[in-house]
Amino acid sequence: MNTLRAHRGPSSGFTLIELMVTLAVAAVLAAIAIPSYRTFMLNVRRDSVVDALVASLHYARNQALNLDQNTTLCAGTPGISCTGGAWANGWEVVTSPASSTSVLLTTHVLQAASTVPLLRSVGGNTSFTFNGTGLVPSLAGAAGGNDLLVVCDARGAVAARAVEINRAGYIQSSVTPGAAPDTTALTCP
Fold it and tell me: Is residue 104 a part of any domain in this protein?
């Protein structure tokens, strides 16, 4: 006797083993990606401070040249008008016309968080004043007429970057982490 059987098509879905293999592969990929993501985020934070500082220095120099008057980039809490402060709080750019009081041009605030890189001046300068010809004649405490602004994070000197400024108004940032623009090793506090 012939019995009629219902034809079953191929089953769709995942088996338990396929699901477990997929989860294991995802876990391995996550274990590899998470440390790389942390390093990536630290690099982005450090580089954003360096880039903002270089942009502010160039802006201050260009304003000094365009307005033919002293323009200062100074450390401290923005809005306090260059009373001398810590680079870790941020900085501001002000112009000092001969006939009137200082005019605030722009500010940059560094957020107070444990992940924000530390910024310090090797020469101890809390401000850089560009004159109408774009020079920084009052660059104090710097060897050879240069000063370094070093940006460090929790990884220390091996991951630090620096911005160099000299009396001629030349501004450059280090490309290689752990080294100044002239390739000398950086130190962090």
Answer: yes
Backbone φ/ψ region at 187: left (φ over 0), alpha (ψ -120 to 50), beta: beta
Model confidence, pTM:
0.78
β-partners of residue 147 are 165
Domain extent, residue 154, equals 16-173
pLDDT per residue, tens digit, the chain (189 aa), is 566 666 666 667 788 898 899 999 999 988 888 888 888 988 998 998 899 999 999 999 999 999 888 888 888 776 656 666 788 778 888 887 666 666 767 677 766 655 568 888 888 888 888 998 999 888 765 566 788 899 998 889 999 999 999 989 999 999 999 999 988 999 987
CATH of the domain at 142: 3.55.40.10
